[in-house]
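Hi D.,

Good news: the full-assembly prediction came through. Inputs first.
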Amino acid sequence: MRSPVPDYLADVLDAVRSIDDGAPADYIEVLAKADTSRLAVALATVDGEVYTAGDSDVAFSIQSISKPFAYAAAIEDVGLDAVLARIGVEPSGDAFNELSLEDGTHRPMNPMINAGALATHALVAGPDASGPQRVERLRALMSAMAGRELGYDEAVYEAELRDAHRNRGLAHMLRAGGIIHAEPETIVDGYVRQCAVNVTVRDLALMAATLANAGVQPLTGRQVIDRAGVRQVLSVMTTCGMYDAAGDWVSNVGIPAKSGVAGGIIGALPGQLGLAVFSPKLDAHGNSARGVAVCERLSRDMGLHMM
Ligand code: DON
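Then the structure:
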């Protein structure tokens, strides 16, 4: 029997397979050795249909794609005002690993850059939470969104923690500026764990579809994030999710999105669907080169642009 959507998705992957630009992230040893031939896509509709093509069962570390989910958790756990007091919502125009503090407030510019994500991590599970409580809150939330229990890529966690000098530097600056109060080392450890959660494109498409579905997981029907938090998360993904390529992305693809250095990208189109792509080679902005091409093609073919 013909399956029109998976066949179409397989054709889209074939169309971008010849793109050989970019390189896998090299500052995390395990990611530098990734199999760069991997390519996968998944779509999940808000009514629970899931379609996949390519290496859709291959797991990879979620990396920065965890940042919107951590932001949602922080908003739920301490309230939006407390989050906004410590982390801004403006694009930084700088690379994801720069300090990028706002003049005057000394807040990290937004929760999608590393400085903002470290500050966000520190708010998860409330002011009295321990390191393990923050980590488990995030693993459990991301699992509820994926609809299955997620685990960690321990090799990625260990490799990243070993060389996390920039993130340690950022966390110490945040502590010195009074943005975080916990021990910087504990925050970096928890944040690196958050980034090492292992996912497939199917998991990510369902997580994105949960955002698109106002916080209700399409398969389980559970309200896993509060609706008001979802609006805030999708807004910040739109302006800051693709770093300094955000303008090109919004023009060409036109949906709230987030990328990660392992080569994943998610997109969430409110009321319609979540999508996820995976291919390890990154472009100059740190976004998956083939992944961006897949999303541009899907947006054009399926009319996904929000405008
Ligand atoms: O903190 C880091 O550098 C990584 N754990 C995550 C960075 C990331 O995914 C940036 N995304 N494109």
